Automatic annotation (TrEMBL):
Keyword field contains Disulfide bond: yes
Organism encoding this protein: Modestobacter caceresii
Keywords in alphabetical order: Cobalamin, Cobalt, Disulfide bond, DNA synthesis, Nucleotide-binding, Oxidoreductase
Pfam families, per database record: Ribonuc_red_2_N, Ribonuc_red_lgC, TSCPD
Cofactor: adenosylcob(III)alamin
Function per UniProt: Catalyzes the reduction of ribonucleotides to deoxyribonucleotides. May function to provide a pool of deoxyribonucleotide precursors for DNA repair during oxygen limitation and/or for immediate growth after restoration of oxygen.
Organism placement in taxonomy: Bacteria, Bacillati, Actinomycetota, Actinomycetes, Geodermatophilales
PANTHER family: RIBONUCLEOSIDE-DIPHOSPHATE REDUCTASE, VITAMIN B12-DEPENDENT RIBONUCLEOTIDE REDUCTASE
Protein name: Vitamin B12-dependent ribonucleotide reductase
InterPro entries membership: RdRp_reductase_class-2 (IPR050862), RNR_2_N (IPR013678), RNR_lg_C (IPR000788), RNR_NrdJ/NrdZ (IPR013344), TSCPD_dom (IPR024434)
Length: 961
């Protein structure tokens, strides 16, 4: 570890100014570690090879052999940490090769800064702090956000924050500076949010007498900038949030901006353009690089409730320049969200009522994922606890060790601000003056299931609220203690009364929790004690941090901690896709399920039978021995028994009073949801005191590749098409039906990603397909010979009665090179030559009813579907797999293949399908399409994580981490 020590020495030498000591320093007691034993010596280490291959062609995308990790860490966690967080060029001597080096690089930097700024009472306390932090990271008890792992202890700027809020005023200089600052943040792979409401509307005059452009016009420039810079991010695609106040005169234009662009996307898609997420033609439409949110106030929501008018106000003098019907305007917000998932909604008065620094300024905006809400030009660094690590063997929550963990983590997070670098000077100044932190947690859904609590139940919500209250109360109590050691935050004095008022609001909300069982009652008792101590110490010392907690998506770091669920989310599904040592993968039932069954009192034999049932069916309905009253414990985000949209809202409302910031979460709604249901979600969010909400209705956006042509799950599994059962007198073996000497045939020329070929299909007298011959490659070449043999094999099988549907199901979606654009107007994108050939055969030889079940349509049929259903409450046509631009996904994808056997009727063959993520696995097991994008790094289907998406293969996220 010499290199790490050298780096830390250099870092300490660069800093000469020490913070003034205001107290005696922190005394740090051992909780998880043993005196005289280093945490590294308590675990079994092993060497592993991380080889990430492209599952389409077997090519190696990443390779680092002999990396060192604890034996208890999963292969997935090993792969993601090695590829994402190890620093140094691969193959060089500077490359990190062990988790020890990674943890030391971060922890020793924090320890050195803590010593330098007088956080500890003695050298011994500093060493205990380092050991305790190391132990928790080593045992996956918590994780810092990704920028810490990327930057701390390296030669790069020491950026530790993942969340940023910018500001823009009504001047051209400020607007152009907005573009610049946003670009700098995107360059580093992070995201930012801002409120455009200070920019005067297009209905107001400039000082020159001309008409202003309005904020929506300036959004076009920012969107183009983000679309250009996002791919240059060092770690992930950029994310951004744009907010506009409900009383802005241009609010209607803002509301409908993305919905109208979605109309364009559909029209262009049906004209044959590649409009999927990441597609090469998607850049021709605007506003696709940001999440949009409307900021509503209580005045507006009361007007909606009462059915009265509402005034839109000039930006200059605040005068009302237009009066609108509040319900009609609210209806436009919810209709646009129904159509394209934007805009989300933020409740301004609720947000600012919990604001600890109102004397400094209002809270106007949020980060892209909506969990960080604070002053303009500020940032927040995050860390998340793994709640499953605090479940004791008897199923109760370990409040005592949870409190100790929060103390240590908050201390470390505050220390990081002392040495952190920031992308802009204003952000650095505000963050150092207010020291916003964002402690949170992951694995809530898994913990609730493991303890026998349904996610959407009073017991589950009460336990979640008590744990969240305990976390934030402890964090602020430690913040008050830190204020006594190193001083309150610079902006505290002018906001002292407001900050104390918010602390009392949190404590009062804690007192209002009504426990349901003994487990949440015990946690609540500990939380009450923490809030009482927080108020007492804070009254004397003030507080070190203006903000303490948020609930972030925990995408990549969730995999680092081997979490089953992210952030506040419930479990995604009961079946999971798991990588194995030595390569390969398998389908497993969540390990939380057996633990939950045992906590509910089931015997080992019953648990085994239920788990086997879930493995086969993907849900618990009618599982042997499982009592119906326990079904709700196993409800998930997707699948047969999915949690209702309002169930997600109720959980958010339960924990919101105990979060300094807000909650990153999207409420997923079925495709059949109505505009009225969206309106009810947004309205109830205001009533329940939530700070921000966003919804996503399945299939409401074109840019969601591979949402599939499958219908919604009716409780039965999708089965492979099979031939009708033969009558009892039929022969026991198939008989060949030869084609006539003279037969009708059709020859089709095709091109897939530039590879040209010919297909000749010969038919019987009734027009059914009897033979296929393929010409690909030069005559006499190996490829041509293989294709000839393949053609003969397919033709013989067709003549012996194998249904064409069977081949279409087997060979469509097969992925290998060449893959990409074709010259066929009905099949614009093919994932391979085989994928194209059998899609073409389906279009030529199957009736539309059978093709509909396979999700294969002509361009004309797709256009007719859109024309017939778009704009009504009927289901919109599913995005077809034809439309996925695989050109964008080549050259990477670190996913092995899971095999899922689907049982069919005895008359048909067993169908083996492939899955490359839990999302795809869930589709195969349940027959329900998961509406999620493809990972832009490795090409596999992602799954939801808060208001973002996360890839299980490489750990990439679509936003914050």
């Amino acid at each position: 570890m010499t290199e790490t020590a050298d780096r830390l020495t250099t870092s300490r030498n660069r800093r000469t100014a020490k913070a003034p000591s205001r107290g005696k320093g922190l005394k740090v007691k051992r909780v998880f570690t043993t005196a005289g034993v280093h945490p590294y010596d308590e675990v079994v280490w092993e060497r592993r090879d991380v080889v990430m291959t492209n599952w389409r062609d077997g090519s190696i995308n990443f390779e680092q052999r002999g990396v060192e990790f604890p034996a208890e860490w999963s292969i997935n966690a090993t792969n993601i940490v090695t590829t994402k967080y190890f620093r140094g060029a691969v193959g060089s001597s500077q490359r990190e090769t062990s988790l020890r080096q990674l943890i030391d690089r971060v922890v020793l930097t924090y320890g050195a800064a803590g010593r330098e700024h007088d956080y500890f009472a003695s050298e011994g306390d500093a060493e205990v702090f380092e050991h305790e932090l190391t132990w928790m990271l080593l045992h996956q008890v918590f994780s810092f956000n990704s920028p810490v792992w990327f930057n701390v202890g390296t030669a790069s700027p020491q950026q530790v924050s993942a969340c940023f809020i910018l500001a823009v005023d009504d001047t051209m200089d400020s607007i152009l500076n907005w573009y610049r600052e946003e670009g700098l943040i995107f360059k580093g792979g992070s995201g930012a949010g801002l409120n455009l409401s200070r920019i005067r509307s297009s209905k107001e005059l400039l000082s020159s007498g001309g008409t202003a452009s309005g904020p929506v016009s300036f959004m076009r420039g920012a969107d183009a900038s983000a679309g250009t810079i996002k791919s240059g991010g060092a770690t992930r695609r950029a994310a951004k949030m744009v907010v506009l106040d409900i009383d802005h005169p241009d609010i209607e234009e803002f509301i409908e901006t993305k919905a109208r662009e979605e109309d364009k996307i559909r029209a262009l898609r049906d004209a044959g353009y590649d409009m999927d997420l990441g597609g090469k033609d998607i850049t021709s439409v605007q506003y696709q690089n940001a999440n949009n949110s409307v900021r509503v106030n209580d005045e507006f929501m009361r007007a909606v409730e009462e059915g009265t008018d509402f005034g839109l106000r000039a930006r200059g003098d605040g005068s009302v320049i237009e009066t609108v019907d509040a319900r009609e305007l609210f209806g436009k917000v919810t209709k646009a969200a129904w159509e394209c998932a934007d805009p989300g909604i933020q409740y301004d008065d609720t947000i600012n009522d919990w604001h600890t620094n109102p004397e400094t300024g209002r809270i106007n905006a949020s980060n892209p994922c909506s969990e960080y809400m604070s002053l303009d030009n500020s940032s927040c660094n995050l860390a998340s606890l793994n709640l499953m690590k605090f479940l004791k063997d008897d199923g109760t929550f370990d409040s005592k060790n949870f409190v100790k963990a929060v103390e240590l983590i908050i201390t470390a997070m505050d220390i990081s601000i002392c040495f952190a670098d920031f992308p802009t000077a204003p952000i650095g100044e505000t963050t150092r003056a207010y020291r916003q932190l964002g402690i949170g947690y992951a694995n809530l859904g898994a913990m609730l299931m493991a303890t026998g609590h349904a996610y959407d139940s009073r017991g589950g919500q009460s336990l979640a609220a008590a744990i969240t209250s305990l976390m934030t109360g402890t964090a602020y109590r430690r913040s008050a203690e830190l204020a006594g050691v190193v001083g309150a935050y610079d902006g505290y004095a002018r906001n002292a009364d407001a900050h104390a008022r918010v602390m009392r609001k949190h404590a009062a909300a804690n007192d209002a929790i009504r426990p349901v069982g003994a487990d949440d009652a015990d946690v609540l008792k500990a939380a009450t004690a923490e809030w009482q101590e927080c108020l007492a110490i804070g009254t004397e010392n003030g507080w070190r941090n203006a903000q303490a907690s948020v609930l972030a998506p925990t995408g990549t770091i969730g995999f680092m901690m081997d979490c089953d669920t992210t952030g506040i989310e419930p479990d995604f599904s009961l079946v999971k896709f798991k990588k194995l040592v030595g390569g390969g993968s398998m389908q497993i039932v969540n390990q939380t399920v057996p633990r939950a069954l045992k906590s509910l009192g089931y015997q080992d034999e019953q648990v085994e039978a239920i788990v086997e049932y879930i493995a086969e069916h993907g849900h618990v309905v009618d599982a042997p021995s499982l009592r119906p009253e326990h079904y709700e414990v196993f409800d998930c985000a997707m699948g047969e028994r999915s949690i209702s949209p309002m169930g997600h809202v109720r959980m958010m409302a339960a924990v919101q009073p105990f979060i300094s910031g807000a909650i990153s979460k999207t409420v997923n709604m079925p495709e059949s949801a109505t505009v009225e249901e969206v309106a009810d979600i947004y309205f109830q969010g205001w009533k329940m005191g939530i700070k921000a909400l966003a919804i996503y209705r399945d299939n409401c956006k074109v840019g969601q590749p591979l949402s599939g042509g499958k219908g919604k799950n009716d409780g039965t599994k999708d089965e492979a098409p099979v031939a009708e059962a033969a009558p009892a007198t039929a022969l026991a073996h198939p008989v060949r039906k030869r084609l006539p000497k003279k037969r009708t045939s059709v020859t089709t020329s095709f091109s897939v990603a530039g590879a040209e070929g010919y297909m000749t299909a010969g038919m019987y007298e009734d027009g059914s397909l009897g033979e296929v011959f393929l010409k690909l490659g030069k005559q006499g070449s190996t490829l041509a010979g293989v294709m000839d043999a393949f053609s003969i094999g397919i033709s013989l099988a067709l003549q012996h009665g194998v249904p064409l549907e069977t081949y279409i199901q087997k060979f469509t979606n097969m992925r290998f090179e060449p893959a990409g654009m074709t010259d066929d107007p009905d099949i614009r994108i093919a994932q391979s030559v085989m994928d194209y050939i059998f899609r073409r055969l389906a279009l030529d030889h199957l009736p539309v009813e059978k093709r509909a079940n396979l999700g294969i349509f002509t361009a004309e049929e797709r256009s007719a579907q859109v024309a017939g259903s778009y704009g009504t409450s009927a289901s919109t046509p599913a995005v077809e797999e034809d439309d996925v631009d695989l050109e964008q996904l080549r050259g990477s994808a670190p996913i092995e293949t899971a095999k899922v056997e689907e049982k069919v009727t005895p008359a048909g063959p067993t169908s083996i399908k492939e899955a490359h993520s839990s999302a795809e696995l869930l589709e195969l097991v349940t027959g329900t399409a998961t509406d999620a994008p493809l990972c832009m790094t490795c090409g596999t289907k992602m799954r939801p994580a808060g208001s973002c998406y996360v890839c299980e293969g490489c750990g990439s996220t679509s936003g914050c981490s």
